[in-house]
Amino acid sequence: xxxxxxxxxxxxxxxxxxxxxxxxxxxxxxxxxxxxxxxxxxxxxxxxxxxxxxxxxxxxxxxxxxxxxxxxxxxxxxxxxxxxxxxxxxxxxxxxxxxxxxxxxxxxxxxxxxxxxxxxxxxxxxxxxxxxxxxxxxx
Length: 139
Known about the structure:
Shape: elongated
Helix content: over 70%
Structural class: mainly alpha
Order of helices and strands: HHHH
Distance between the termini: 42 Å
Strand content: under 5%
Radius of gyration: 30 Å
């Protein structure tokens, strides 16, 4: 049994070495054919693949950052809403207990309150639902 495992391991190691050789050979062939044809280096398929890999990695990183920013934004908005709600309740309580009437909200204050109330639904619409999937590299 051990000899079979050793043989399989040796086969896999040889396969890996063969694949590395093929990759290096193809890379060299691409470089040579690009140089012979007078094409710019950007048209070299090996360079294009490396650039594509770098772009994919950057895209995944950006998606991850978007996800983190969205979570932080939601947390901030929730905190602002909670604090605003507490302040509004405190004002109402003070109005009731002190018989002091607070002026109604101005138009701009009302617009701000409405904006805060609608911000939660807008926040979830701004980030595509598959951003998490993109960040995980499934696209």
